[in-house]
Amino acid sequence: MTHALTFDPASLDPETGAPAEDRLISGTPTFRTWNFEEAEGGIYAGIWEATPGKWRIVYDEWEYFHILSGVSIVTEDGGAATHLKAGDSMILRPGFKGTWEVVETTRKDYVIRV
């Protein structure tokens, strides 16, 4: 059975966080995450938002995301920078290592498979 989800961030309390100190490169970014789906088999979906800053990222999971607002730059170690803005989508696969820089507060929806 399928069902549609509607999401209103004002109706849920977000989880808050920040990059680990040993991964922080610049700024004082903060995160807000609204997890609204957790399914068997390690599937998660929701909305994530971050304020400006730059930090190292290491992915052990597979993630698809779509930028809803803001501007970010994701750069794989040894690779080119990917500039992301509202309407852009990306997939990060297990083993991805690099940096995430939020230039303008960014909000994305995501699906993660661990």
**Could you spell the SSE succession in H and E letters?**
EEEEEEEEE
Q: State the CATH topology of the domain at 44-114.
A: Jelly Rolls
Class computed from helices, strands and strand pairing: mainly beta
Helix content: under 10%
What fraction of residues sit in β-strands?
A: over 45%
Can you say what the CATH homologous superfamily of the domain at 44-114 is? Jelly Rolls
Provide a count of the helices.
Answer: 0
Distance between the termini: 23 Å
CATH architecture classification name of the domain at 44-114: Sandwich
Structure description:
This protein has strands at residues 15-17, 24-27, 31-39, 43-50, 53-58, 62-76, 81-85, 89-92, 97-113. The chain is mainly beta. It has a domain at 44-114: Sandwich (Jelly Rolls), CATH 2.60.120.10. Strands 1, 2, 3, 4, 5, 6, 7, 8 and 9 form a nine-stranded antiparallel sheet that branches. Strand 3 and strand 4 form a beta hairpin.
Give a concise summary:
The chain has 114 residues and is mainly β. It is built from no helices and nine strands. Helix content is 0%, strand content 62%.
What's the layout of helices and strands?
Elements: E1 15-17, E2 24-27, E3 31-39, E4 43-50, E5 53-58, E6 62-76, E7 81-85, E8 89-92, E9 97-113
Antiparallel strand pairs: 1-3, 2-5, 3-4, 4-9, 5-9, 6-7, 6-8, 6-9
